[in-house]
Specification:
This protein has 84 residues and is mainly beta. It has no helices and eight strands.
Length: 84
């Protein structure tokens, strides 16, 4: 599982700290391995009752950039750096 410290960008508010993001996606192969990070260029998209987003990973999975939208809020820039 990969865990990231995240920030959101709200336009006029600049970058602000947000809650950590933890990912693990394993099926026939490990998109986001349980014991590692996604490879560079991997894009993960999600949508559900708790919001939606799309992020792309860079620098061997050490960071990501993308967008997210949480319930009752407008879309925001979304980025993160791997913990540890």
């Amino acid at each position: 599982m990969a865990t990231y410290e995240t920030e959101i960008h709200t336009g006029g508010g600049g970058w602000q700290s947000d809650e950590p993001l933890s990912l693990s996606i394993v099926n026939r192969d490990a998109v986001v391995p349980e014991d590692g990070r996604p490879s560079t260029g991997t894009t993960v998209t999600w949508s559900g009752d708790q919001g939606n987003g799309s992020v792309t990973f860079f620098d061997e999975g050490s960071r990501f950039e993308g967008t997210a939208q949480f319930p009752g809020e407008g879309p925001v820039g979304y980025r993160g750096r791997a913990q540890g």
